[in-house]
Structures are given as C-alpha cells and as structure tokens.
C-alpha cells in the first residue's frame, strides 16, 4: 500500500540499478532462518529504489498495463488459496472462475462462445500455444499424426507472417521447430499492415499444410491488419489463421473502435494479454482456439492417475500444475462490467490522441504514426536527438517512454495501456517533454 501511495510523485524510472539491488538483497544465504514478518519488511524496505512506477499513470514504455484494484486483490487470493488449477476435479472454484472469465471475454470480443480459452503467462506463450495447436491441426488435416510420428519426417508446414509481426511470433516458431529461413514474410504498408494483394500472391506459391499469422495491433503504430480482407484469402488457400492481438484484440470490446477488428471472428485462433489492456497484474495471457477438439489433440496429457472432467485447463495449455492466473481476469471483468471495459479502451485511445496532438504542437517533434488506437510514436529531427530525448525524460522522472527503430529511424514509443492514466498525466508528460526538447 505504501508503494502504491508513492506512484503519483515518485520518479517513474527507478533510481537504483540492478547492481545496487543485487547488493541490497545479496550476500551468501544466511544459515539461520528469519521470522516471516521480518522477511517481508526487509524486502519491502530494500525494494523501493529499484521499483519502476509501472502501476502508475505515466508509464508509457513498451506495452504494459497497470493493475485494477479488484484484480490485484484477486491475485492475492490466488496465492493465499494456493489451488493447483490444472484440473476442475481438483480445484472447482478457480477453474470455474477462469472458465467464466474466458466466456465473458469471448462475448466481449465477439469471438465464438464455444472456443477454448487457455490462461497462460502472456502473449508470447499464447502465440506459442495457439501456433502449436495450429501446427498439430494442419498436419492432421494433411494426414500426418504429429503426436504419433513426430516432426522430423512430417510434411513442411508453411508459416506465413507479416513483415511487421511481433518478435514473439518468430520465437514461437523457433520453439515449434520452424526455422527463421522457413518463415514466409508478406509485405506490409507504412503502418505495418499486411498487404492483402501481397498475401494473395504469396499463397499462390505455397503448398501443403499452411498457417497464416495476422496481427491486431502493431506494437509501434497500433495499426490493425485488414482482417476482413486477409482472413478469407487465407481460408480460400486452406490455411489456419492465427491472430496476434496481445493488446489490440481489446478494440473489439469498444463499440467506437471495433471497426478496427472487423472480420476478427473468422480466424481459427487468437492470442491476447490480460496483463496489458485489461490491467490485471503480471502474468496473464489467453490462448483462444476456435475448436476445442484441436486444443485437446495438441495438449491433452496421459497419465493413469489424472481424471478428466471435459475441458480442463491442462487440455488447452502446455502446463500441468498451474497458477489460477485467470482469476484476476474474472475480477477485472466483474469490476468493470461490459461498459467499463469499453470505457477503459476508449479512454486509452483518447489519451493517445491527446498525447499525439500535444506532441505535434511542440516545435521540432514529429508524430510518426497514424494514431488509430493506443500507440503514439514520435521523433525529433535526428536519431541522436530522438534517443537523447528519451534518456532525458527517464532521468527527469515524470514519465517513461521507450525507444524503437521504425523504418530505419530512431523513434520514441508511447503506449497508452494503463487504467490509471488521467488527462492530467498526459499534460504533465507533455510539459516535461516540452521542457526537454532542444530549442
Ligand atoms: C506484448 C506483445 C506480445 C508478447 O506478449 P507478452 O505478454 O510480453 O508475452 C506479443 N505480441 C504483441 C503484439 C505484443 O504487443
């Protein structure tokens, strides 16, 4: 509570380095134990200088949400209950909360109510889980039983992605035995959206089992692939379509923004995060698969002592023993309600527009992207000045934005992802940036 109380005033970037913190907590493991209350007090006292103001309203780096109060308290309950939530037979309360959270989320996002929802650690593992399911399914459709015969002699799976996909897609492919040179890359436009005519041309050359990976919410620009155009092209060519919507999928929950995800529901699998736009604590992502039978085929485990109750968490994720990380998602959804989720997403977009307008009004600052959603990217006249501005802002302490490379130029990225951000936070950040931009 003390830490949360400091968020409005503390420098958002930490004052201590990793080395400082290693000294604070380090030394050899003491022989003797310590009273649990003292352990926690020692940790809390030492931690402060190395903590980042991530749960506050002016952390705009990467794509990182804050934590809604109900979700934070629910997360404490998850630890106190200590329910190993792999199977409904063992832990009915947490599995029920997760199952309902999954159904609510499918409903909010306009996805098929019968889809399987696996709560995993984040977007990376959600992409991995969905793509592992996809690989299994497309091989099965071409007559290859992956579970029985393995990958080594299997028909090559064509893995088609957009030029501006997230790095976690290639990493998921690597885990799945798909090499970098095997990934087929389709051209993207200036905002990072896959070009439909380029996909059409690419798929004419692809034979055999096929996975097409699309994106809802490009991490720099916030742009959305034109799903209504792309998914039918992929399906006409027999592909499994996966959508990485780590933060963008939530646009579908807003009547004002759901035009961005038009066509979304036709895909075969979707990955998203709850710890970004939904603002639950780390960690919580969701792997969603249209046909639960495909999830079961890829993930159901054996074991004479395991009891099956229909669709258990261990049927739809790579985990066996697992934390009930979907419970905070239930609390976040219940606390916001349908209208509250829409209002949250709308607010993030409005803050992004206000930030972009304010930045564009500063002499020497250029906003680089079309601000359609929650991402604002900007730069100064040169790469060096752009990088220096980011570093100066971290040192100044008001807010955090993080740097990136976009189309060969240095930029700063500002991601609106926190429920805690207010119009005043946007103003304070703009004032700080104004004071730091060279005249
Ligand atoms: C954040 C992000 C991921 C990875 O999600 P983690 O929660 O960090 O594992 C994947 N794709 C996109 C588009 C993202 O923004």
From TrEMBL:
Residues modified as N6-(pyridoxal phosphate)lysine: 276
GO BP annotations of the record are: carboxylic acid metabolic process
Required cofactor(s): pyridoxal 5'-phosphate
Matching InterPro entries: Aromatic_deC (IPR010977), PyrdxlP-dep_de-COase (IPR002129), PyrdxlP-dep_Trfase (IPR015424), PyrdxlP-dep_Trfase_major (IPR015421), PyrdxlP-dep_Trfase_small (IPR015422)
* Keyword field: Decarboxylase, Lyase, Pyridoxal phosphate
What's one GO MF term for it?
pyridoxal phosphate binding
Pfam family membership, one: Pyridoxal_deC
Q: Family, per the entry?
A: Belongs to the group II decarboxylase family.
| Descriptive protein name | Glutamate/tyrosine decarboxylase-like PLP-dependent enzyme
**Protein source organism:** Agrococcus jenensis
Task: Give the source lineage, highest ranks first.
Answer: Bacteria, Bacillati, Actinomycetota, Actinomycetes, Micrococcales
